[in-house]
Amino acid sequence: MEIEGETRSARKDREIIQAATAAFIGKGYDGTSMEEIATRAGASKQTIYKHFTDKETLFGEVVLSTATQVNDVIESVTTLLSEAKFMEGGLQQLARRLVTMLLDEELLKLRRLIIANADRMPQLGRSWYEKGFERMLASTASCFQKLTDRGLMQTSDPRLAASHLFGMLLWIPMNEAMFTGSNPRSKAELERHADASVEAFLVAYGAQPK
């Protein structure tokens, strides 16, 4: 698939990263060779090394490329947690979107890879966390502060409130998925879990009737 305005070099980078993602997820970091990535990408090993210095560098690009997906999530957070959307069930919509996105099968596999290689590449895991989850947490906390200022929520610590919401949403289904090697819950089950989490969250942090 071509992207409008994309340079030839950028397109090749993208194709290599896509091929590497499939290889790393399928065979793990140690089980993947640059030769296999080249074959999957339809390129020579020389081309791969021209674009990426070594396997570790390429693995880093694969991991960090997923963090760019967070931009869409951040936009969803700021939209669904605006005053009007919040009053129309925006928090529930956001919770459903977050739990289904973060429990995507490919993302789960990549998450396991990052954890498995955290000792040898600690900075990579930290960067993935900071550019991904940390940004989501900060954006949500900022929105919670605005909603509190408008009397739609009650919290003295919006960041802690955001942490509580994410914890309620992800603790059980994420651990199920990480330890069982798959996502055992259907989308409908995840959405019911999200709805129940939001209901409990609003008991604690929702605006109290006057």
TrEMBL record:
Domain named HTH tetR-type: residues: 10-70
InterPro entries membership: Homeodomain-like_sf, HTH-type_TetR-like_transc_reg, HTH_TetR, Tet_transcr_reg_TetR-rel_C_sf, TetR_C_Proteobacteria
Keywords associated with the record: DNA-binding
KW DNA-binding (keyword) present: yes
TM segment ranges: none
SUPFAM superfamilies: Homeodomain-like, Tetracyclin repressor-like, C-terminal domain
DNA-binding region location: 33-52
Top-rank taxon: Bacteria
Pfam families: TetR_C_7, TetR_N
PROSITE patterns on file: HTH_TETR_2
Family matches, as PANTHER family: HTH-TYPE TRANSCRIPTIONAL DUAL REGULATOR CECR, HTH-TYPE TRANSCRIPTIONAL REGULATOR RUTR
Protein's name in the database: TetR/AcrR family transcriptional regulator
Species, as recorded: Mesorhizobium opportunistum
Lineage start: Bacteria, Pseudomonadati, Pseudomonadota, Alphaproteobacteria, Hyphomicrobiales
